[in-house]
Amino acid sequence: GNSVTQMEGPVTLSEEAFLTINCTYTATGYPSLFWYVQYPGEGLQLLLKATKADDKGSNKGFEATYRKETTSFHLEKGSVQVSDSAVYFCALTNSNSGYALNFGKGTSLLVTP
Amino acid sequence: DAGITQSPRHKVTETGTPVTLRCHQTENHRYMYWYRQDPGHGLRLIHYSYGVKDTDKGEVSDGYSVSRSKTEDFLLTLESATSSQTSVYFCASEDGFSGNTIYFGEGSWLTVV
Q: Shortest Cα distance from A92 to chain B (angstroms)?
């Protein structure tokens, strides 16, 4: 079946620090990969996505590259801000599951001034 | 943002009572989903629909039923609510092509006492 594993949180960083949140997946075929962000008290918003191997998704300074050889989709940002404090979810969709998102458990990020 | 609204947004109900959550989307999306979010579990798929009157079970479907009589509406029913169903419920929709963005509603907070 499909599954996503992401690093446990919470992650606490100082403003302007470098961020990496690891994500690996298990899936057959050719899944699409996503990072979603959830701010406190809100729903999920798409942060970025990649639909095929070696694609790089990017948005708001965040990046992630679809690595089929390592089955990974790690999220990175060069300089985090206090406003980036949120929960980040790695997810995949696959044609064998009706395109429903399979989520990791989420990683909470706290950025301090 | 896609037009996805959920109702009610907050509800407190007693154990054993039936509860229906409604999801309404204005994007004419073919696929709709219900997820629940719980600490330590991330988001888990309850049921999904791939068209009017076409639904299927997700990872945690026990105790839940769904109906989709119109493209725009997807109802989630708890036949007899239990305390283990206290959760935040999210509806989502998309048009069904691989890699397409899945849009989420704002969530419905349900407490079963």
A: 9
Spatial contact of A6 and A22, defined as CB atoms under 8 Å apart: yes
CB-CB neighbors (< 8 A) of B9 in chain A: none
Contact A46 B96 (CB under 8 A): no
Give the pair of three-digit tokens for residue A94: 């696959």
Q: How far is CA A50 from the centre of its chain?
A: 11
Q: Cβ contacts (< 8 Å) between B103 and chain A: which residues?
A: 46
Q: Which of A 62-91 lie inside 8 A of B, CB atoms? A: 89
pLDDT for A18-73, tens place per residue? 999 999 999 988 899 999 999 988 889 999 999 999 999 999 999 999 999 999 99
- Span B7-58, pLDDT tens digits: 999 999 999 999 999 999 999 999 999 999 998 888 999 999 999 999 999 9
Query: Which range has the worst mean pLDDT, A15-19, A41-45, B68-72?
Result: A41-45
A113 with B45: CB under 8 angstroms? no
Question: Nearest CA of chain A to the CA of B97: how many Å?
Answer: 8
Inter-chain touch A99–B45, beta carbons under 8 Å: no
